[in-house]
Amino acid sequence: MKYFIITGTSRGLGEAISQKLIKKGNHLFCIARNENSKLINLANNNKVSLDYFSLDLLDTNRIREMMESIFSKINNEEVESIVLINNAATVTPIKPIELCSDTEIQNNIQLNLTAPIILTASFISLASSIKANKRIINISSGAGKKPTFGWSNYSSTKAGVDLFTRSVGLEQKDKDYPVKAISFAPGIIDTEMQAQIRATNKEFFKDIDRFISYKEEGKLLSPDEAAEYVLKLLELDVEGGEVIDIKDFM
Question: Hey, where are the domains in the chain?
């Protein structure tokens, strides 16, 4: 049995990844603030096991307890692989840092960086005795590679995700059954996040015209297309700690 733990499954990339993983031999654990009835019905129709955990990942104090519940459902005798996909994230607030409230800053860091770190820590701890293929895919962004006006929070958290992934790779290197972590920037995807970006005041986000042109010129990947590249990472031969961009596949 292959087990998949996926965050941010209510829409966008997380939903698309989950849809592609609903197949015989897989068991999905979907995490989001709200249940996705489309995924639940699809799993039921295909007789695939899917457990939904409705949790706001800003409530970081509840993450470890949730992960313990998930691992209690994993049969160690039949497990072939376990994968955690840290996908949930937010781009807001989009504005210069001095205009961001303390709460906006805190929420961005908690969802984009603190939650994936706690999820990863829980995953590695709970899976330590499981002799199987164990992998973590952290969804990052090209925004973590260079500064962008109005994205001081978002870019910093994504840079943090990349370095955190490299650190986990180093820590797991000599384990008998290591957890292989990968950070992946999936490109610019046509999701609600992109709609938020295009609706931002140019005074707060100076690159808005470029992002509007991506949409108008059909340069955005669909969530379904981006999900295909995420699935390729499941089969990629890696040591752990790699920071990969979708351009590496093109």
Answer: 2-187+222-249
Q: Check the CA dihedral 12-14-16-22 and report its sign.
A: negative
Q: 3-state SS of 39-69?
A: HHHHHHHCCCEEEEEECCCCCHHHHHHHHHH
Q: Which CATH class is domain 2-187+222-249?
A: alpha beta
Give the closest residue to 15 by CA, choosing from 6, 26, 5.
6
Measured distance CA(44)–CA(60) in Å, rounded = 30
DSSP one-letter code for 174 = T
Three-state DSSP state, 182: strand
**Cα(32)–Cα(49) distance, rounded to whole angstroms?**
17
Give the C-alpha separation, 93 to 99, whole Å: 9
User: Given the DSSP bridges, would you call strands 81-86 and 49-54 parallel, antiparallel or unpaired?
Assistant: unpaired
The token pair that represents 5 in the structure block: 């733990």
Residue from 154, 177, 214, 229 carrying the catalytic annotation: 154
Query: What would the two tokens of residue 230 be?
Result: 């995420």
CB contact at 8 A, 42 and 122: no
Structural contact between residues 58 and 110, judged by C-beta atoms closer than 8 angstroms: yes
CA distances from 168 to 31, 161, 171, 239 (A): 22, 10, 5, 11
- Segment 9-48, tens digit of pLDDT: 999 999 999 999 999 999 999 999 999 999 999 999 999 9
What pLDDT, in 10s, does the model give residues 158-201?
999 999 999 999 999 999 999 999 999 999 999 999 999 999 99
Place of tokens 């603190």: 114
pTM of the model: 0.96
Q: Is 154 a catalytic residue?
A: yes
